[in-house]
Amino acid sequence: MQAFMLIVAFAEIILGADEHAFQQFIECSFNNEGQVDRLWKYGYDGKDMMHIDLVNQAVVATSEPGERLAEERQSKEYIKRKEDKLKMVCSAVKTVFLLSNNSLSKAVKPDVFLSSGGKKEEEYLKCAVRGFYPNVIRVRWTQTGRPIYYGVSTTRILPHRDGRFQITSYLSLRNISAHGVTCEIEHLSINEKLRIIYEKKSRFLSAFTEPVFLAAVVFLLGFVLSVCLTLSVSWIWEHKRKPHQDDSHDTSADSDTSMNLMNVLQET
């Protein structure tokens, strides 16, 4: 089984009144035997522009806007600088990973909750990843298989008291539809990528995709138990009172019978 380590780095630039984003994506991956792959690519407004092909020593444009940039960077010196930086970053990541004494046997799979929120025109999707170990994870958004970079904000990895970790990623729906959007997770505890596809539901139901559900269940259980207890006490109380009422009725009937007998005797 391979143990993958991934690093994602984004550089976003906002230009004037119109919002635009320029992204750089760096990935390091390796297994227990050593380096497997490394990647450096560029994007603009959520679309791939170009990437560094380390095998063929070339800068490859993947879109029309990226052709000019790729041509400007088409030099051995530029590619060598990027390759050296990738080696340095990936080596540092691997060192930290090994020193942390992490292993596949200790890996804990995360719980993932995908929900929506926000007011109209400020809606967003929220991907909450909870309880994973070790603290090396990759969370990203895709739509119909294509990565989404623009409108994404992710918290730093936060620790749990039990030694596990959590992270939350948000995707703004201001310039994108939620249809076909997927929260994608890569972690040592997962053999392949874990993909959670967003399914539109009511806000009420969406709230129950997170730990709020537990609080609601506890409340409902408490309410049901209290009602059952009240009904049980009432039934027991009524059950205890009923024999006394029957005895009183029987005594009254016996008294009436005695009076009738006395009247009959007096008449004879």
TrEMBL record:
It comes from the Eukaryota. Pfam families: C1-set. Keywords: Glycoprotein, Membrane, Signal, Transmembrane, Transmembrane helix. Residues 1-16 form the signal peptide. The lineage of its organism: Eukaryota, Metazoa, Chordata, Craniata, Vertebrata. Residues 110-195 form the Ig-like domain. Gene3D superfamilies: Immunoglobulins, MHC class I-like antigen recognition-like. The chain crosses the membrane at residues 212-237. InterPro entries: Ig-like_dom, Ig-like_dom_sf, Ig-like_fold, Ig_C1-set, MHC_class-I_related, MHC_I-like_Ag-recog_sf, MHC_I/II-like_Ag-recog. The keyword Nucleotide-binding does not apply. PROSITE patterns: IG_LIKE. This is Mamu class II histocompatibility antigen.
